[in-house]
Amino acid sequence: MAQALSGIRVLDLSNVLAGPLCAYQLALLGAEVIKVEVPKTGDLARQLGADPALNARHMGASFLAQNGGKKSITVNLKSEAGKEVLRRLVRTADVLVENFRPGVMDLLGLGYREPGESNPSLLYCAISAFG
Fold first, then answer.
1. For residues 108 and 85, is the Cβ–Cβ distance under 8 A?
2. pLDDT (tens digit, 9 = 90+) per residue, 22-43?
3. Which helix (H) or strand (E) holds 30?
4. Which residues are paired to 34 by β-bridges?
5. pTM higher than 0.85, yes or no?
6. Which backbone phi and psi does 10 adopt, to 5 degrees?
7. DSSP state of 101
8. Nearest-angstrom CA–CA distance, 56 and 82
9. Residue 55 and residue 115: Cα distance in Å, rounded?
10. φ, ψ dihedrals at 12, nearest 5°
């Protein structure tokens, strides 16, 4: 039996809790979720959890609990090459989830309007605790 979101591709650019949990729920429903992390350190949650050994290996319990079933890649979104990688991924995606501070994606040149120009059917989900 096919899952509800089978065939849907999600780009997860989020960190720590709300965004990763949202994308995790989409993965549980069958979506292909590609987690885009910063080089070297990745999602901040990789270092969060009760087990210092797991945290040191960047596999903190908080990260493991919210990122099962996802594919992870690292991309330097501050570099032009990294921005181009994200643009190529956006062209093949159905959903983009991010939870940067308001305006950060715009400063990177990757805000709401730009991905929509290359993929008009993209569902852009900005999850923010800042209102």
1. no
2. 999 999 999 999 999 999 998 8
3. none
4. 11, 71
5. yes
6. -115, 130
7. P
8. 26
9. 33
10. -110, 105
